[in-house]
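ok new one. same drill as before - structure tokens go in, u give me an amino acid for every spot. 167 of them this time. try not to just spam alanines like last time pls lmao
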């Protein structure tokens, strides 16, 4: 949106015009109405913060892209949590209490480190490592170059390696 469209009344118009469809878009993907409402709200907040960079005629597509990416981030985050929980259940029978405690601390640090990655790095990392997508697939899905995917992955792995060295 341009400067004049950052006005509250224009934003409200866009909000009321698209809120339900954005919420439903996420709801149909997730099956969780509360999460869909939260993610739709996040999309509008992001639009408000970036209103000067988004032309008014692209506001709807921007909202869909932001909502879709937020949904994918949430799905990826849940997959990471489930994977660690599943692995923990399998390993707990064969480990000492000390090892289990250290492992739990490491998992918390790792999850926190992944959560603290910038959105682009986190999304690329999780799409590659959890969804097993190739860089080309990620690039197409995010509408960025393969080089950009490689750079984001490199930065994400570098940040996560720093956490591993601290443990």
């Amino acid at each position: 949106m341009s400067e004049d469209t950052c006005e509250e009344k224009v934003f409200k118009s866009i909000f009321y015009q698209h809120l339900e469809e954005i919420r439903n878009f996420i709801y149909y993907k997730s099956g969780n109405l509360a999460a869909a409402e939260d993610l739709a709200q996040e999309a509008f907040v992001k639009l408000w913060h970036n209103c000067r960079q988004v032309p008014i005629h692209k506001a709807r597509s921007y909202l869909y892209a932001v909502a879709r990416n937020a949904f994918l981030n949430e799905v990826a985050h849940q997959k990471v949590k489930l994977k660690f929980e599943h692995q923990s259940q399998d390993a707990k029978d064969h480990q000492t209490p000390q090892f289990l405690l250290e492992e739990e601390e490491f998992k918390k640090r790792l999850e926190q480190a992944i959560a603290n990655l910038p959105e682009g790095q986190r999304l690329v990392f999780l799409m590659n490592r959890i969804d097993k997508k190739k860089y080309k697939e990620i690039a197409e899905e995010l509408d960025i170059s393969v080089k950009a995917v490689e750079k984001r992955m490199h930065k994400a792995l570098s940040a996560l390696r720093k956490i591993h060295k601290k443990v």
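The chain has two domains: 1-76, 95-167. and btw The mean pLDDT is 84.
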